[in-house]
From TrEMBL:
Protein family per UniProt: Belongs to the methyltransferase superfamily. UbiG/COQ3 family.
Gene name linked to the record: ubiG_1
Pathway: Cofactor biosynthesis; ubiquinone biosynthesis
Organism the protein comes from: Polaromonas vacuolata
Entry protein name: Ubiquinone biosynthesis O-methyltransferase
Catalyzed chemical reaction(s): a 3-(all-trans-polyprenyl)benzene-1,2-diol + S-adenosyl-L-methionine = a 2-methoxy-6-(all-trans-polyprenyl)phenol + S-adenosyl-L-homocysteine + H(+); a 3-demethylubiquinol + S-adenosyl-L-methionine = a ubiquinol + S-adenosyl-L-homocysteine + H(+)
Source taxonomy: Bacteria, Pseudomonadati, Pseudomonadota, Betaproteobacteria, Burkholderiales
Tagged with keyword Methyltransferase: yes
Keywords: Methyltransferase, S-adenosyl-L-methionine, Transferase, Ubiquinone, Ubiquinone biosynthesis
């Protein structure tokens, strides 16, 4: 797959249509705002971000990228959804966030231009939206420096995740817009682990993310049956 073809036009259109609502914390993106402190703290505990060069792949409106910059990292956010990137840029100006920039480019294309550039790469809630997630994982490996850290998050593919992440979140609780996720595109931890091993990563840590719809409370634990995250490293040698 070429560096410019690993995207789904329907997925880009879906998120572009909602771009103006990225920073509305009561909008369709409320879950991202709610889980962002959990993701940020988890990453920052594994590798303190202050002073590091960080790439956020599939940054959307910049929720995580902006937060990492506020931790003192020098952050580049990349995406192919132009409207979302404009929203991210506008928010950075309005919030006076220093140390963050955004670019419309794919991970594969950037990997060809700037291999081994970043101390940390994050790719969160993005792999389940592209035709070839393994190619994105491989590009992340190319982009990070030897000894660097790469973080992934996505959704498991099983009966429980279908019930909770799609039926529950999109059709019953209306936490997410209907059609946000396609069951066939969800990724089992074993599959993501295989993509990581094939790229050359060492898998360091996994974490699951849970949600209580009654309290609207999210938390991290070891249960990866629905939402989960991987922390990986690129060997130094």
């Amino acid at each position: 797959m070429s560096t410019n073809s690993n995207f789904d036009p329907a997925e880009l259109a879906k998120f572009s249509d909602l771009a103006h609502r990225w920073w509305d914390k009561e909008s369709e993106f409320r879950p991202l705002h709610q889980i962002n402190p959990l993701r940020l703290t988890w990453i920052d505990k594994i590798i303190p971000l202050k002073g590091l060069s960080v790439l956020d792949v599939g940054c959307g409106g910049g929720i995580l990228a902006d937060a990492m910059a506020r931790k003192g990292a020098k952050v580049m956010g990349i995406d192919l959804a132009e409207k979302a990137l404009k929203v991210a840029q506008l928010h950075a100006l309005e919030a006076q966030t220093e140390g963050v920039q955004y670019q419309k480019i794919s991970a594969e294309a950037l990997a060809a231009e700037q291999p081994g550039t970043f101390d940390v790469v994050t790719c969160m809630e993005m792999l389940e939206h592209v035709p070839d997630p393994a190619a994105v994982v491989k590009a992340c490996y190319a982009l990070v420096k030897p000894g660097g850290h790469v973080f992934f998050s996505t959704i498991n593919r099983n009966a429980k995740s279908f019930l909770f992440a799609i039926v529950g979140a999109e059709y019953v609780l209306n936490i997410l817009p209907r059609g946000t996720h396609e069951y066939a595109k969800l990724i089992k931890p074993s599959e993501l682990a295989a993509y990581c091993r094939a790229a050359g990563f060492d898998l360091q840590k996994t974490s699951g993310m849970q949600y209580n719809p009654l309290t609207r409370h999210y938390w991290l634990d070891d249960n990866t049956s629905v939402n989960y995250m991987f922390a990986t490293t690129k060997p130094a040698a």
